[in-house]
Please model this.
Amino acid sequence: MASQFRHHYYQKIGFEAVLPLEDAIDLSADVIDTPFIVRYILWGGELTTHDRATVWKYLLGTTPECREAREFVRLQLTEHFDDLRRVVALLQPEHYGTDATFKTEELFTAMYSLCEYEQTVRPRSAEEVKLHLSVASVMLAMCPVELDAFWLTAELLQRMDSSCQPPVVIRNTLTLLLAEDPKLSGHLAALAINEKCDVLIRWVRLIFADHLPTSILLRVWDRIAAGAPHFLSFFCLSILLSIRMEILRVYERNSLLASLAELSWLQAERRATKVLDKAIQLWREGRLQSKLLTST
Model:
């Protein structure tokens, strides 16, 4: 009640305020309002470390919204998890057998490769392997139960694989940049920085797992879990706007590519937070949404 009063008061005096999720929705309810959680996150609400794993289970579909279905689904996921683990051990006993020593993240990536999402077996690039290991590592740190950590890993990777195609994300980023800052857009175009640019593609292919502090990375991934892969384009746009002056001072393409590849400054949580807050602001304004491609 007190939180709702403060929320109403802040709105009256002209400040935007977003209720903490635990004050806005009961995560222990018999039926969870997942569309509300999606709206909450996309409007700018932030998840606490305590709530994130629970919320992601609903957003990614590993826990049903309805309490009555949860026990059945849990049993099915447990059986599937155990089957995948046994098969991986049988196929690669030297790596994942009883006597083998391995990291759980590596086991998860091997199990994921057997999931129904990957209908054809194909070699993975080094960046794909790195992303899979990064997601698995984050999930294991977030979930004490390996079963939950694996299925969140599998579902988030599937969403990333299907909805976060680098050329589309980068094309959208450059389209947004043209609307937001024509001068900077023209400068990049003059140096042939486009959706085929390897440096920009690498940003998206790793979903920034290589560049951001974990606390900021999770806030970016919250938007992907909530079904808004287009947010990545706004985040890329915010990065470019943050280093606008540095970009405009460079007139040689290789030098600019080297500058764009060097994102170590994003490891500083304060600077990464500013970039993310700017991306959320641009997203919430809504004036650029119509510029996005409808397909991902």
In short: The mean pLDDT is 85. The chain has 17 helices and no strands.
